[in-house]
Amino acid sequence: MHRKEDARFVRGRGTYVDDVNLPGMLYGAVLRSPYAHARIVSIDTSAAQAHPRVKAVITGQVLESLKLAWMPTLSYDTQAVLATDKVRFQGQEVAFVVAEDKYSARDALELIDVEYEPLPAVVDARKALDPEAPVIRDDKEGKANNHIFDWSAGDEAATDAAFARAEVVVAQDVLYPRVHPAPLETCGAVADFDKVTGKLTMWCNTQAPHAHRTVYALVAGLPEHKIRVISPDIGGGFGNKVPIYPGYVCAIVGSIVTGKPVKWMEDRSENLMSTGFARDYHMHGEVAADRDGKIRALRVKVIADHGAFNGTAQPTKFPAGFFHVFTGSYDMEAAHCAVTGVYTNKAPGGVAYACSFRITEAAYLVERLIDVLAYELKMDPAQLRMKNLLKPEQFPYPSPTGWEYDSGDYPKALRLAMDIAGYEELRKQQAAELQNWLAGDHTGTLTGIGISFFTEAVGAGPRKHMDILGLGMADGAELRVHPTGKGVLRISVQSQGQGHETTYAQIVAEELGIPVDDIEVVHGDTDQTPFGLGTYGSRSTPVSGAATAVVARKVRERAKLVASAMLEVDEGDLEWEKGRWYVRGDREQGKTIQEIAMAAHSSLELPDGVEGHLDATTVYNPPNLTFPFGAYICVVDVDPGTGQVKVRRFVAVDDCGVRINPTIVEGQVHGGLADGVGMALMQLIAFDEDGNCLGASFMDYLLPTSVECPSWELGETVTPSPHHPIGAKGVGESATVGSPAAVVNAVMDALKPFGVRHADMPLTPAQVWRAIQGRPLRTDLAIQ
Amino acid sequence: MHRKEDARFVRGRGTYVDDVNLPGMLYGAVLRSPYAHARIVSIDTSAAQAHPRVKAVITGQVLESLKLAWMPTLSYDTQAVLATDKVRFQGQEVAFVVAEDKYSARDALELIDVEYEPLPAVVDARKALDPEAPVIRDDKEGKANNHIFDWSAGDEAATDAAFARAEVVVAQDVLYPRVHPAPLETCGAVADFDKVTGKLTMWCNTQAPHAHRTVYALVAGLPEHKIRVISPDIGGGFGNKVPIYPGYVCAIVGSIVTGKPVKWMEDRSENLMSTGFARDYHMHGEVAADRDGKIRALRVKVIADHGAFNGTAQPTKFPAGFFHVFTGSYDMEAAHCAVTGVYTNKAPGGVAYACSFRITEAAYLVERLIDVLAYELKMDPAQLRMKNLLKPEQFPYPSPTGWEYDSGDYPKALRLAMDIAGYEELRKQQAAELQNWLAGDHTGTLTGIGISFFTEAVGAGPRKHMDILGLGMADGAELRVHPTGKGVLRISVQSQGQGHETTYAQIVAEELGIPVDDIEVVHGDTDQTPFGLGTYGSRSTPVSGAATAVVARKVRERAKLVASAMLEVDEGDLEWEKGRWYVRGDREQGKTIQEIAMAAHSSLELPDGVEGHLDATTVYNPPNLTFPFGAYICVVDVDPGTGQVKVRRFVAVDDCGVRINPTIVEGQVHGGLADGVGMALMQLIAFDEDGNCLGASFMDYLLPTSVECPSWELGETVTPSPHHPIGAKGVGESATVGSPAAVVNAVMDALKPFGVRHADMPLTPAQVWRAIQGRPLRTDLAIQ
Questions:
Q1: What would the pLDDT profile of A685-717 be if each residue is shown by its tens digit?
Q2: What are the names of the required cofactors (chains A, B) (predicted)?
Q3: What's the rounded mean pLDDT across residues A204-211?
Q4: Which of A587, A634, B36, B292 has its CA 20 to 30 A from that of A399?
Q5: Testing the interface with B: which of A225, A316, A502, A514 to mutate, by most B Cβ within 10 A?
Q6: What are phi and psi of A71, to 5 degrees?
Q7: Per the CB < 8 Å rule, is A531 touching B601?
Q8: Of A575, A592, A620, which closes a domain?
Q9: Residue A428 is part of a domain; what is its CATH number?
Q10: Which helix (H) or strand (E) holds A216?
Q11: Contact A615/B217, CB-based, under 8 Å?
Q12: Burial of B608 per CB tally in 10 Å (0-12, 13-18, 19+)
């Protein structure tokens, strides 16, 4: 089954937000701060306002008079829409110009005269809590320093006790550096406020249209039913398109002020400099183990750098909540983790860049710690993992942090990955190669073999665990069946390339036994779809996919009532087979869904209380998260002379439960693996000590291409989720979660002869070369 | 409560179909037949095709190759999209030009060379069935003559027996002439077919978007879920915008052929000449009565002129089915009616021009017959009506035609109208005035006092009675409640000025106890609304209004489940009061709908099986029609010297059950009364004997203005419909149904001294003058 949406994408017929052009539309541009931290002394907009094609110049002062200067974030913080008192990160929004064309808007930015008084910046998160550190958020009452939150999980006393008893303890500092999702399409919006009807129509490329509507309602003071958010085709999201950015609000204000539609589109550098980042976790991990490798306990301390505003999606009641999975896929007695979130003078961080909400960091840390333990115990990392992986009979597994993993057969997945890779043979080749190398032949490269095993927690879960702005993590689905039996499914999640138009149609087609082309999927428009929290955290299939299966089953049950009237038999005497209800014991007597749909809308007499349609609505509240998992093996060739790393092979065995569309699952995995290679080897957003962003273009922020990627070798196991209606688990982010550790472990494996146990990502040639030289490495902004 | 939609209408901010302009849009124009009946010998389009700005020229031959030359109508007939073999009415569609601008499209029409061979035309419906009459529909197999249908209702034998026993029998031929609804906005469409997605988006100003979608699906061979019909703001419908016209299909074909959006808009003359007409009923009525005026039976024979295609909405299993109400509001032993439908060489007739489906004709006939009986018995027409009106205790009343009138107090309504009019005093003044006139003072005008009492049957009813294309007469409603408690109601009917955005919001607000501004009403877009049959036949309130009340009550019940979880009490212990559920016996403990909506979407734990939302969907199948009624009294001044009629006063007492928005009801009544004055005195579409249409402009087809209308005097009684959830009945067409007879009866009342018993509408000065002269009148196309 090929993707239905590709028919328009491959012909260039998608409609992205920048393709939306409305009569009389104006264009907005944002003036951004050149400083990471500075007081604003004055802003003079008179020259810009005098520009003949400029229609409005909006500053924080203007917004203050409209009570719009600050907006709520998705994480219980507030963020300046346009800076008033001071700027808190380089690239922060200071003013917004609306003009008749985009060139004039940009030109006029240069006519705005802002006087700044620079302040010292907090760049290193580990120094943010120093008593003498500059205070970034002096706007917050009772926030005397840069502290945001303390969060912990697990049993600290039991963990300490296990460490006290341990035969072996290893410790390692691990940085997951700040990275940017860098979607192909930057963020943008067209805001169209109709003064007469009081209705705001907002085209914006968001992953969560309904959550955006609620925030716009709160920010702009418009009633929720007077806001329509349309999220058209999107060129990639990866969490970058979950947050509300000031530009969106400025476009709305621009439209309200001018009475015209206003378009705002970021350029690449704005996107890379000022929209939501991910990671930036300074982690310290300790493992307690027996001498034979049996892990007893895990202890973790984290400083989490959230930037200047805790602004981006963090849909958990507890910040960093998904760090809950920090024990990974392993059985142990006890574990404890403490995370402290701090403000720094950087753009807001913490977006749900696959995977969301700290799972990627947690998975990376534990997989690095396992390899560090193997290094110290001189054990094979595959054997060490096999010894400690959870056993199938342990599921559903209550984790040391109080979560319940739904299902899994972890050893099977790892064995399959090892079989595909030919693990034993690889180790033999590596040993022979090393033999040569130690014998003095330094002409070639060194092989490294890296393993990672990850467990994700996706679905953004059960309502008791988490919310956004008090809203539960549910998603709605509506299925309308037309008289001819063709249907339209309306869902609350939004695709940024995931292929929802195909997979959701497949779910309905399967449940109703009708052709997949008979179902049209509608999404991305709050006026056309039921409420729901959107697409991120791999939650579409676990939540909205479940809603879709449920709503299709409701339609099937409704069809049964109508079929019973058509066939004049009791409901209880009907049996379902693909696409039809028939009379038990008489297969000839039956009615297809199409016949039933027409009859439901026809003049057929129906029993009292049976309505003449097959439509259904549902909202699905997941009873638990789903826990996809996987075993990855990466083989690299490292050139010790240059530090160059080449990924030779990559084996990925994913278990995401039942696969709705295997081709789309494979596509998702391919993308995530490439992502992992990029993060492990190339991607870094670096800052100098004044907080200047050193990588806000694709010349500096390097993304992997096909040149850096091998031909992926995929395998699968299928452990259905017991609580999902069709047993699916979600796979969008799995490969991004699992792959960085496999690549880094492989490079470290290759560097073992040099006595290198750990080096931080990204493992650029310089970083590898320096590791080999044995020079001390700065683990925070190590790239020159 | 003022109309919410007026905020945009009075500022000129409505969006009508001609306001829809798409990038790259082309313009279509229709070439129409100058003949009423002619064979097409040849069509040469080469010159038009050579026009530099012409993109396509489409003829019936082109459509035949696409199997699109004929389309199904809403009345089980087929209609030529573009004529191939011959043309059958003046103005019929022959070719369609698509050009880069509308002027070029019109210019190119003149470059098309059509050779016609004229044929004799059938213009007088009464001659259509003559064996030697030309056969119009030689396309139809087994249709050797111009017969369409025979339909009858009532008990013929019982009626004949009652007539045989009768003390008095009166008979009268009555013509209800052909009229046109003439909405302010003509018909039009923008068709946008996307080759890549296979999706057709069709903006067209239809009263029935979902029915249109189904027909487009059948015509164009597109699957139903790949068609989106958007019916934007509409400048009046009155039944004219129910049918599918060939121009719509041509616009679709034009878009498919050119790959561009194609706009087609009629001009006024096209609208008046070729879109759906109404009436054209040649009726013969007989009344059997006692000498004291008690009516015993009624016998009616009708020749119904449906034009060249039985093309327009007639959503009954039996053509002319709503003639069922031909016994009007009166008690009698027996009644029988026979209607024969015929083809003539005129544009398709029979649109649901208020009121739909033959009620207007039936109501006019019986009210004329009552006055003819009063004339012959020399009785006061008010007294005669009072004697024969159904009594309140007869309801629910089984009519002689097998229908069941739901509720009414007819004498009360008539008495109220007489009180408002000061009937007795008027009669005294009239007698005095006549006295003067007979005494030789002929300088002034003569007063005429006319009464009519009507019963409508609206809601287009119960599914066992009728359908369109096999679809039952149901309408859907969906209510979504956002987390903040604001809601969106989606309905399947479409407003053409009726104020749905206000009245439907009021229904929801009343049922949920929330502010009316918290509800947004969405309609007119098949992608956004549930399936339903649309707005005509005064069916919005009876069917869709009922669906709205039902869906709001479903939301209330759903809210009860959530409130029970919030308050931790059993559902059974909750009581409803305006806007909130509270704990029985403890009024302090309660939750408002807004609080419940937020909680439903929050992280509140809900019992198993209770979904986290308040949304609901329904489709309402009306168990019966509703039967609004009214008593009207018209006072006219007739100048016997010139034949000029001036409407001096008009009293209208309407009973439409419960009134949702009294101002809107009054507005509907005002419009219908003006309509009735126009039809009674001015409006006529006339044809010469070759079938040339003599009135295709507003110079010839006269519509009433404020000059012709008095200040309306309204009264009301309220008899709720027992089966409608809020007791409402629908009022859109009442005044159009009831008023013509009141005006004509008033004029005939004034002309009594001349011994004039009947003259056919429209009672233009010439018609009145000739009636007085005693000259024989042609009752079909009487106006010179």
A1: 889 999 999 888 999 999 999 999 999 999 999
A2: Mo-molybdopterin cytosine dinucleotide
A3: 92
A4: A634
A5: A225
A6: -125, 150
A7: yes
A8: A620
A9: 3.30.365.10
A10: helix A209-220
A11: no
A12: exposed
